Amino acid sequence: DWTMGRFVDKEIARIKALVGEKGQVIGAVSGGVDSTVAATLMQQAIGDRFHAVLVDTGLLRLNEAETVKKTMSRDLNINLAVVDAADLFLSRLKGVTDDPEKKRKIIGNTFIEVFQEKAKKIAAEAAGSPQAGEIEWLLQGTLYPDVIESISFKGPSATIKTHHNVGGLPATMNLRLIEPLRELFKDEVRVLGKELGVPEEHVWRHPFPGPGLAIRILGEVTPEQLRIAREADHIFITEIQAAGLYKKISQAYAALLPVKAVGVMGDKRVHSQVIALRAVETTDFMTADSFEFKHTFLKRVSNRIVNEVDGVCRVSYDITSKPPGTIEME
Ligand code: XMP
């Protein structure tokens, strides 16, 4: 009968057979559960012949790139390259104030461009190594629900949810797809992660969208707006963890609204921005309900954000369910 231990053995054997003695695999990782677990499985199957690439878009949460780097290369021994592309992403997003779809397209296209360029470099280096062959494979952390969704709505799984997945890279790369999670549901991926030794706090992470903080900053994305959104988000998530609520909530974040309101800080009137907190409970992310915090908790978070984050004088809590709201703001 089926156990996770046997799944691991079988899948590692399958990957080894598929890739061969010298074959190499490349894949984008985000630090999310799926890509971390898929990458760990690849590492345990073929070691350094799996190349993980983390694109730092500059749109990640506070300390995120550092945390992912530490977990992946130090704890999980994954052969990881980090590409710092923050300036490029920011320059392309400049002036995009009122068009969420444009934001998403710019980020998606820039991501593909940066990843492909890095993949070419890694492939060129790999080609010079006598122990290894060419990079022929692209890892994708596709799950079973993605496979089903793609069959019923969108054609072949290689093209599913392109903008919804960090690994959603185009077929033009001429690589064959390797999808070790394609038979698993999310809860099984978590069990697999534990089995493979992925740290607990990584296994239980909330999902984080590919476009990152850009779709939580309404209006133009600038370094200053990123700073505010990042600091506020960090306070909110830290307080959620301290209150023991992290696992009860499916996803939570602080968004930055593009409006100003008046407040009094000390003895001065200020005219500054408004944070909207969002936290939802959901099982499938297709529908969701806002999380019911105790009022005292929300007040504590609000006080901390207004006092600690420069440029914010008000905090609100978004109680919209999905539908009609979406989980993200843009
Ligand atoms: P919405 O906002 O559509 O989000 O209710 C549902 C889930 O999908 C995530 N999401 C994304 N994930 N790239 C991603 O990797 C995206 O462009 C993207 N848009 C939404 C969202 O965070 C939530 O978990």
Automatic annotation (TrEMBL):
Sorted UniProt keywords: ATP-binding, Glutamine amidotransferase, GMP biosynthesis, Ligase, Nucleotide-binding, Purine biosynthesis
Highest taxon in the source lineage: Eukaryota
Enzyme class: ligase
Any one GO CC term of the record: cytosol
Catalytic activity: XMP + L-glutamine + ATP + H2O = GMP + L-glutamate + AMP + diphosphate + 2 H(+)
rRNA-binding as UniProt keyword: no
Enzyme Commission number, as recorded: 6.3.5.2
GO molecular function terms noted in the UniProt entry: ATP binding; GMP synthase activity
Pathway assigned to this chain's UniProt record: Purine metabolism; GMP biosynthesis; GMP from XMP (L-Gln route): step 1/1
GMPS ATP-PPase domain mapped to chain residues: 2-205
Binding site for ATP: 30-36
Subcellular location: Cytoplasm, Cytosol
Record has Nucleotide-binding as a keyword: yes
Protein function: Catalyzes the conversion of xanthine monophosphate (XMP) to GMP in the presence of glutamine and ATP through an adenyl-XMP intermediate.
Subunit structure: Homodimer.
Protein name according to UniProt: GMP synthase [glutamine-hydrolyzing]
Organism in which the protein naturally occurs: Viridothelium virens (Speckled blister lichen)
Entire-sequence positions represented here: 214 to 543 of 543
